[in-house]
Amino acid sequence: MKAFKNYFWTILLSFVVITLSIIPIPEVPPLEDIPLFDKWVHFLMYGAVACCVWYDYYRNRADRKITLRTILCTVVYPILLGGILELWQRYLTTCRSGEWLDFIADSIGTFLAFPIGAFIIRYFAKKVNFPKA
Fold it and tell me: Per the domain annotation, does 72 fall within a domain?
């Protein structure tokens, strides 16, 4: 139960991403005119998940050191989540299709969230002093 409390925002956003990834999405004609709109959505969703992991990490740690475990959690978890959901869409749904380009967009969003989480959120964590969960 403590992990749920400590990583509440990460778990909540992950649940939202999972839900959005498996429900049928209606086609919206104005959005179809935006080039690579779907890839931008993937990029932002998984970047946000990675930032939430960083936020929850800093919120619950007094030392706020960046370790190999921290890097693995903040990078590998969102990429693994994206890969599993793409496979789920491909093989377990009839209304969605898993695509390699979506997985690449997930990964790019995660990697670009790394410096945001490692440096920007860490910087503000020192100034704001996030409350412990």
Answer: yes
Reported as a single tens digit per residue, the pLDDT across 32-76 is 777 888 899 999 999 999 999 988 888 887 777 888 888 888 899
Taking the C-alpha atoms of residue 114 and residue 89, their distance in angstroms, rounded to an integer, is: 26
Tokens matching residue 21: 């990834």
Please check whether residue 17 is in contact with residue 85, taking contact to mean a CB–CB distance below 8 angstroms.
yes
Number of domains in the chain: 1
Tell me the whole-structure pTM to 2 decimals: 0.85
The answer for residues whose C-beta is within 8 angstroms of residue 59's C-beta and 6 or more apart is 6, 125, 130, 131, 132, 133
Q: Is residue 98 part of a domain?
A: yes
* Domain assignment present for 10: no
Residue 17 in domain: no
Tokens representing 56 are 């929850």
For every residue of 121-133, DSSP letters joined together read IHHHHHHH-PPP-
